Write the structure tokens for this entry.
Amino acid sequence: MNSLSPKERVKIPRQKMPEQEPESRRKNFEEVNLGLELELAKREAHRCLECANTKCVETCPVGVKVKDFVQLIVAGDILAAAAKMREDNVLPAITGRVCPQEDQCEGGCILGKKFKPLAIGYLERFVADYEAAVGKVGLPQKAPATGKKVAIVGSGPAGLTVAGDLIQRGHEVTVFEALHEIGGVLVYGIPQFRLPKEIVRREVDNLRALGVRFETNVVVGKTVTIDELFQEEGFHAVFVATGAGLPQFMTIPGEHLNGVYSANEFLTRVNLMRAYRFPEYDSPLYDCRGKNVAVIGGGNTAMDAIRTSLRLGAANGYLIYRRTEAEMPARIEEVKHAKEEGVQLMMLAAPVEFLDNGSGWLKGARCIRMQLGEPDDSGRRRPVPLPGSEFEIALDVAVIAVGTTANPLVQSTTPDLKTTRKGYIAVDEETMKTSKQGVFAGGDIVTGGATVILAMGAGRKAAGSIQQYLTTGVW
Amino acid sequence: MFSIIEAQFVAPDVKKFRIVAPRIARKRKAGHFVLVRVHPKGERVPLTIADSDPAAGTITLFVQGIGKTTRLMNLLETGDYVSDVVGPLGKASEIAFYGTVVVIGGGVGTAIAFPTSVAMKQAGNHVISIIGARNRDLVILESEISAISDEVILTTDDGSYGRKGLVIDPLKELIEAGRKVDLVLAIGPIPMMRAVAEVTRPYGIKTIVSLNSIMIDGTGMCGGCRVVVADKTQFACVDGPEFDAHLVNFDVLRQRNSLYREAERLSLDKFQQDPSADLACAKEMCRLQNL
Ligand SMILES: Cc1cc2nc3c(=O)[nH]c(=O)nc-3n(C[C@H](O)[C@H](O)[C@H](O)COP(=O)(O)OP(=O)(O)OC[C@H]3O[C@@H](n4cnc5c(N)ncnc54)[C@H](O)[C@@H]3O)c2cc1C
Ligand code: FES
């Protein structure tokens, strides 16, 4: 039990995350945050006010029992804390690292109204890493085999969550993944310095140990269709979690020039294909050493791309965003880290043309300054171009990170699957059922690009209704 | 892990592979391709599926050793494995009855065009095949193509076999002689495809080319394979690889395909100096698979 009085608790400062120094880390791909030690974690846990009304739980998309697991840290039973966490969150080592805590649990924390909020994300990461380090992951018990087969399409956080939930209920679960590695954005998008691949692999191995089958190199819609999964392969339910993987370009002149990348390509080459270790690994990337690199966008993807370019040796890394820092959708920690590492923010600007050096290679961008106008549908103030404010910037590489849309491969090959106007899969929000019997969907393929934890929340919900469908047979 | 059950050279530097990939074999149509990654440190390279046997669960690929990965692949033997094969990708060729179809293959493009020729013949077309190669030794699939073509014309750059000259020479002659040509399919190096497009353009003959842009995922996820067709950006892996030759911007294709020229050269040099590390990486994986 926490023996400190509330007065004593608020006197403890929020513990700082130990991290690699900016100067050294901008030259390597090792993880930036080093994680709390046991003592620091305990001290942080002691700050929890143990509110009766747990706002932190309410603001968590999967309802992690924050107070309970934090109390277990205070009591020194870290493995029990981890087990408590796993009741609601199957990927704690991952969400502890990548969730936008400031908008969720920590945003709800009462401490934050007067002091700094409890570092729930750090604690979450701590218990998961501790559990892995002592090698005692508390794998849940499996229910007896039901004889029902579930196919999961896509191995990102939504797919992995459903796999974890349904394997425990005794179903046979197969995950089909188009790429050669399991993990979705967690392996091809989010870089090593923020989420080491070993951590994703560890979680995937846990699922494998529970009996989940993984089939890589299967593009559903091409290699096999949803209808064939039902009719020829005997699956009883399908969960579609194919993400929002289609990169958006800006449709401005010069986008085909050599040196202009989508963020997806830039990050996939580095993360999935390990281009930062070329020529040991085969896939190359434009040699960024000593070059000027700009990323266009303000989200996590943009931050990841620009920080990656610094690690690849870029002389200058610019982040060009059409609104201001306050509107940037990226996690606060990413913006802080990026600035510490020397990323140069160019706010209220947008490129209007990429410039050709005369032989098809990028030499720069013509940009225009913006000013903020009336709020748009998203509630954020709309950027309006300032006439006559155009300027040029010299660039060797430009990475476009202005968002993604739905990949149509599954939808276009499954005629009775209804989609939204923008091409996402339409579902009943309570049950995650699609218009086609036996088919459920969740994650970015339903919401558009969102977050890891929302994808997991959708998976959790879908797993519940898939379970119900499989046991009752009622659609 | 995908098992190679047949590997044999059909010309110097061109090897034929039969690989066990039952799901792909079942779905594959003419014009489809696969992405192959030889070993866990490898890149993903697109290769057209030349043939498939759904009953045996195999697909056939022809690999011309040009860069590092294709040369490494050509060192693999029957009984070896490749790490990853994914497909069938891309849009299938539009097979229909057109009338007279001229299929032009340059170099390994001959193998890429072959399945479409077969399908065109089956659809009732009069198929004229033009096979182009640098010299006699590099002519591939001659007997297979002869068996399914109504007419076959061979050209070599040095005249060591067939006619001396380029593939566009006989094409021009056919058209100028007043032969009715309803469709031309041209697959090969970029200058060849572009030259064919220029021959047919004044006559308004529908001409299809298959674009070999640089790819990673093959599912529309990265946009690295983008090409400009009819002034619009298209992704070769999902919108193609076949496009209307008269609308393709070949300059952009050539320029984008040169993006990694230096890295590719470095990679190839390193491999040629000492292929053992890569070979070990591939063979290691094979051995593990057999344990
Ligand atoms: C660079 C980057 C950084 C991000 N940073 C953060 C962050 O810090 N915090 C956060 O919360 N969120 C972040 N996000 C967003 C988050 O990663 C996504 O919201 C989340 O991964 C969505 O999960 P998902 O399971 O829906 O899909 P995905 O993770 O996109 O996984 C979909 C998987 O399906 C596969 N697939 C697609 N089509 C097929 C098919 N036809 N057949 C078989 N498989 C298929 C794909 O290859 C992929 O592996 C980031 C995203 C990116 C791109
Ligand atoms: S290869 Fe990535 S989109 Fe075509």
User: Anything to note?
Assistant: The interface with chain B takes residues 178-180, 216-219, 222-224, 245-247, 249, 251, 255-258, 261-262, 264-265, 268-269, 272-274, 278-284, 286-287, 359-360, 407-409 of chain A (CB under 8 Å). The longest helix of chain A spans residues 452-472. Chain A has a mean pLDDT of 94.
